[in-house]
Amino acid sequence: MSADKLTKKLSETHVCIVGAGLTGSLMAVFLARHGMRVTILERRPDMRAESISAGRSINLNITRRGLRALERAGLEAEILKQSVPMMGRLMHSRSGETTYQPYGRDESEFGNSVSRGELNKTLMTAAEKAGNVTIRFNQRVAHINLETNTLTIQNEAEKNRYEEKFDLIIGTDGSASQIRHCMSEIADAQCDTDTLNYGYKELTILPLEGGKFALEKNVLHIWPRGLYMIIALPNFDGSFTCTLFLPYEPINGSPSFAKLKDERVVGEFFKVDFFDAYGSFDRPEKTFFENPTGSMVTVTCDPWHYKDRVLLVGDAAHAIVPFFGQGANCAFEDLTVFEELMNKHVKDDTVDWLNLFKEFNKLRKPNADAIAQMAFENFIEMRDKVGQPEFLLQKAAEKVLEKNFPDKFASRYALVTFTHTPYEVCRDAGVIIDKIVAELCKNIKSADELDLKKAEQLIDAKLAPLLKGRVRDTALSST
Ligand SMILES: Cc1cc2nc3c(=O)[nH]c(=O)nc-3n(C[C@H](O)[C@H](O)[C@H](O)COP(=O)(O)OP(=O)(O)OC[C@H]3O[C@@H](n4cnc5c(N)ncnc54)[C@H](O)[C@@H]3O)c2cc1C
Asked: What global pTM score does this model have?
């Protein structure tokens, strides 16, 4: 029998959040504000008591969308204290030459390199301080009975299983979500997981003596090599967390995880392909085998909710490949929207959850699809185009347009990263921007030769009607 409509007062509603990652922990902060009782079930041990396992320390570029959710939770300043600003990207060519591309139009626009583990720890502590929130570690959700809202939970520490019923269940259990899996098997949610034919491996560049940075500090470093690449993000302690993206199997004879079989081959690979950084990596031949190989997926699912009882948020609903640095930013923007919808829908300490979930799904799903598409396009861009002269000219042209038309023009990257313009609009604007820039770059060799009069006409005619002035960070509502 299907459960009745949930009409309980918020103060009497017991919600279970599955997964104490970035999304689940921050979600708990917002729900606790409405006086709800929140239990978070997390399959791992408490990372605040354990060291984060080597090779899984990932750094995130947290930008406007993520910062706004953190600001609303009162945590922005604390997180920014742990971050290193990144003003642009620095490309390292095979011959060791570097080319710098600033991220923003001026120094007010930059990325923030934050340790995912440290961010997660801060959010867990904030959740526990927010009110009636309990995090239960080593509790892996194995199954959900959607009709009775009952979870089957595996206690990983005591090696036993038990069942528990909740009023509401929120699945924030990441890209391999068990909640999503059950929703797609039992209910009619259409869910797909598309696995990229690339894996990633983490490496480290250690600080120099005295904690100094071995490479330029305030940038994201990229070593683009056609079908593979390394990126490096700065850490607060002077080190860099580097990620090698590589196909599992050779593509047109390229290096691949399948080919890099022993320390000698790996050593050669780093020495030849990344020679200017080879001496800085911490024992690349060893860490390559010590650290796990991560996989990357795009998850799509529709709808994100089951009736008025179960909702997916964050990677569980829409994991994306990491090449726009927006997965967590998008998940945090989900939470800003969710919080705004709560404020709108709460009446007399109750909520019409079904309407809220439907509206949330309607507002966020097209935007999640748009950033998934752009993230994949950025993968191709970073892999294939970043070092090409034509691409560099187009990027330089975008900068000239941003400087000359600050209220009318922003690149797609800037719209996604430094504004709250819906991802859907950013994607559509990107198509128009590419056409405008290609038209303006015909027959010129340098961005200084751009025809600015023609540029303004094209921007006014083609881009302005879509962007409606949304080219700077705005305090507009996300909904
Ligand atoms: C290499 C790489 C680089 C990235 N860079 C960026 C970046 O620069 N900027 C950015 O915004 N995003 C980035 N991302 C994406 C970002 O890491 C994710 O979007 C973000 O971590 C999603 O958070 P989440 O809480 O939804 O999921 P997760 O972080 O996956 O958290 C899920 C939680 O649920 C728990 N869990 C899972 N299953 C169960 C279960 N059955 N029962 C109980 N608990 C469970 C897990 O242990 C985990 O704690 C990157 C990702 C990768 C892989």
From this structure: 0.96
